[in-house]
Every structure is written in structure tokens, then in C-alpha cells.
Amino acid sequence: RKDNLFYPFTSKEEWEVADYLLCLSLSKAAIDEFLKLHMIQNLQLSFSNTRELCSRAEMLPSGPSWKCQTIPSIYSTKLPICLFWRDPVECLESLFSNPLFHDKLDFVPHCMYKMAAQLLRVYSEWLTGNSAWDMQSQYPIGAMILGAVLSSDKTNITTMTGARITHPLLLGLANIHMCTCTKLSSKAFMLTALLPILKYLHPNQWMCGMLEDHLVHECLSIVLKPLMIATEVGIMMSDPVGNV
User: Among candidates 88, 60, 96, 90, which has minimal Cα distance to 243?
Assistant: First the structure.
């Protein structure tokens, strides 16, 4: 990866073609027919058919795996309480090692000024703030800090099949430049959990609201526990070019 950030593909352009074809709902025959076009063959791609394309795609990192955990409750609900989530540390590691962000990451705190005399300081990225400097000073030489950004909002996940709703929990990396994070196409946020929203069978509506809020906090405690442990003991990660 040090020599080619988009391995097993030869370049970013080839990776974009592969990503486009794999994300489309095309049959293998349709992809083969597309790759046989003279214009596409002039691109000199490293794959010439669907089988070779899929074999290269299988060499890509799989990403964090999903887990399902049933949460017990002494209060009755219409449906079982199931929490779907991924390890947030693995999600951060996936974002941090993503080759698409190799030139869009800040690794150490820094100061920015508008004038050469350093009279007017500029605060833009997270690592330009004083809090980042204070945290970095508490760690030994060679260690670096990663900032986690969490966001969530109630979302419908089904249509005409039961009206299921959930709180999708998105995890981002504060070290990625702000101009990149704000672009939806950059995929700088990773879906980390689906926090369940259930109806409690309790006669007191005020109590139902309290139980629903408590469930969200309980789920967050489960999902973020690996992240809390990592903040105490630290963890080894590789950057986009493979450096640890």
C-alpha cells in the first residue's frame, strides 16, 4: 500500500470504475459486455471480466462486522429489544486507514495564523484548538490522539413493512479535514449502530417516554464501551500507507 494506495487496483481511476460496476445491480453478463467495449479496453484495466473484478474485490479489507445483541427488560414491549452494532474502535481504524483520506488527515496538533507576525490565530480544524494541544501533551512521544464524532437522528428503516424506526448512530473521525467530512460523497462517517426505538406497554405515557430514553442511553453504553477502554489503554492503528 505504500507504493499503491488503491491496491489491489492499479490506480484511483481503476478503483472508481470497479466501485461503480460493483455497486450497480448489473448481471455478470452485463459487466462482461461493458468491459469488452473498445473505449473501456483502451483504459488498460487490470481486469477484463467479472471473475477477475470480483477476485480483486475480495482482496479488499472486509471492514467491521455487525453484531446483534438482545437487551433484556423487566417492562413489556411490543417487540424484542435487539441492538445491531459494530465495534467503534474497528470503525475508527477503518476510517483512519482508508486510502481515500491519506492526504486529508491531520496527525498532530498545530497552530495556524493569518499573519507572519503570528498576531491573529485561526481556529478551523479540531487539531488547531487548545484542547487538542492539552490532550496531546499528556501522552508520550510517538502517540497521537484521534477525535471521535458521533451523530444520530430518528430515521425510518422500512417502508410499507411495519414502519420500523431507529436511531442510526454515525461515527466520524475528527482528524479528517472539515471540508471532507461535510461532503456526503466522501463517506467520512460510518454507520456504527442502529439504536432501537420501541413502544413500551406501560399505562403511564410519561413512564414510557422515560423508558425509551433510558434504552437509548443503555444502548450507547454498550456500543461505546470498547471506545472508552481504548481511551484508557491506547491502541495500535495503521495509517493509510501502512505505518503503525
Answer: 96
Say if strands 121-122 and 148-152 run parallel, antiparallel, or are unpaired: unpaired
The candidate with the shortest Cα–Cα distance to 216, out of 201, 228, 200, is 200
Q: What is the pTM of this model?
A: 0.74
Residue type, 181: C
Q: What are phi and psi of 104, to 5 degrees?
A: -125, 25
Q: Are 200 and 206 in contact (CB under 8 A)?
A: no
Spatial contact of 70 and 206, defined as CB atoms under 8 Å apart: no
CA 11 and chain centroid, separation: 23
Radius of gyration of the chain from its Cα atoms, rounded to whole angstroms = 23
Q: Beta strand 165-173 with 189-196: parallel, antiparallel or unpaired?
A: antiparallel
Q: Is-contact 192 88, C-beta < 8 A?
A: yes
Other CB atoms within a 10 A radius of the CB of residue 49 amount to 13
pLDDT-wise least confident of 150-154, 157-161, 180-184? 157-161
C-alpha cell belonging to residue 49: 471480466
**Please, are residues 101 and 188 in contact by the beta-carbon 8 Å criterion?**
yes
Q: Are strands 155-156 and 148-152 parallel, antiparallel or unpaired?
A: unpaired
Q: How many residues would you count in the chain? A: 244
Cell numbers linked to 34:
461493458
pLDDT of 63 above 70:
yes
pLDDT digits (tens, 9 = 90+) for 100-131: 888 888 888 888 888 777 778 888 888 888 88
pLDDT of residue 122: 85
Q: Give pLDDT tens digits for 172-195.
A: 999 998 888 888 888 889 999 998
CA distance linking residue 157 with residue 173, whole number of Å: 25
